[in-house]
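Notes to self, GTP-binding protein:
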Amino acid sequence: MSKAPISLVHTKKLTLIKSNLSQLFTSVEDGASDYTIVASLGCKNIGKSTLLNVVFGTGFEVGTDRFNTTTKGIDGMLIEGSDIVVLDKPQRDLVLFDVEAFDSGFHGGRPSGESSVRLATAVSDVIVLHVHSRDVGRLEATGLPLFKNAIEDVMKLRSLGVLSSHSKKLLVVVFRDVESEETNREDLITAFIEDCNSLLGAREEGSTGIKKISDLFDIEFALFPHYVFHRQSFERTATSLRERFREPTSDDYFFIEDRYSNPTPAMEISLHITQVWERLGIESYLVTAPEYEMNATFHCDNCFEQALTTYFSRVREWKRKTEEGRIIQNFGKESTELRNEILALYDDEAAQYKGTKAFERKRKSLLERVQLDLYTMYSKLLNKLKEVSFDIFRESLSHIQISDNVEKDVNKAIKAADKYFCSRAELLKCKGTSWQFDSERKELLSVMRENATERLQLARIQGAYVPPARMPISLSLNYLHPNPFGKDSRYEDFQAEKEKVKFDPGNTRRGGIMEAMLGGKDKMRTGVGRTGSSSATKSQGSQVIKPGKIQ
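result:
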């Protein structure tokens, strides 16, 4: 192992330090074993250097300032393989590249982080890509758009014959700060693959390259918990990853059957990396945009940084007040004016490149960055406004007397506090944004109602308040018979064989008797016989028919 990291790229001058490059690979040239270049990529402060140190026992510098990046350019170290032959294959020599972050910014108008990422992606055999688990699905936060550009470089260099296209590279995706209880591994992996494929598939028609991430890489995944809060679990996962890199006897060893070995001979690798660096810097070889567009990119990046610096200097006092829990008066109006002023500053500085893709892209990025920072302050102001509104409600509640109208008075107090909160929250909003305060409002209403209920319940227990009687609720249950009149011949087929009509003459006779009985009060005359024949008409003195008897 080399004693200390060696700087390979000069950050400010954006130059390759060829002497250091040769020094790093001298030990590889002396050895007879294969070697593999492993590059560690990711956004700043995600812990790239920390993980390399834990897994490989290296001494890469680790930062303590979460707002600044520690690694500048590319730092390299050699991890020498063991001379002990295991299964006819010695342990692999590993050259580690600790690469500057995707989002480290620009130096002198030139993207130092981007250049380092492009070189490392082009010459490495294994890429360890660090992604925060909570950023999956947010492309800009993960740095995948810049990684996509680096992949484009690889495909163009392959088409020019500068890079070998003999086999795939290995991509080890390391998800950081994974909460095991909340995160589903398969869902996380699926979402990441979809993000990569959507970026690659959304490129311009006819562009050189691939449509799926799996066309260029074999992909492996590792889920790491938080380094500070779950140290033991983190180290166990790191040990498992170390075995895959360093233990040829492991079933999951990455380098079985000479896989992911660098195709360039060790004695030529320094010259090869130098050639790749030069090709990446010469526009005639990699035509990624017209010269005017490239100049626009560099100039607009500078204007972006200047405008952002001006913005942060202007909001320093606001941030101090919000941290102290104070409400900024006229925040909505003043934040709108400041946002427009910063955009106007950018427009003036980058006016000569107005209409280019770079101008529009950086202006959109500046707008999003400013509004995101303003929204952070707005959220803190809403929390303070909730406290003020609740205090107003409690003050109103303390003056309410227990009476028959106490519930109406409490509701009035709730509505007054809610109206105060909504009106002030609306005034604090930056115009032209989609900021909402519905969740804060619901939380405030919930707390006020809960507090009011507790007060009324306490008064009820003490005997000072008797709730008014409520009107009873009438409830009736009805059951509708499906066939109240028997079977319906319109919908059900009548089968003569199974359902024969049975005629009972006794029913007819009994019906006649009932008809006779209901026809008169005490007596009734003989009428038409049930047989259908007519009987003679009797006189007033004729024989009386007694009920119950049939003559």
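- Residues 282-289, 521-551 have pLDDT under 50 and may be disordered.
- The chain has two domains: 6-280, 291-462.
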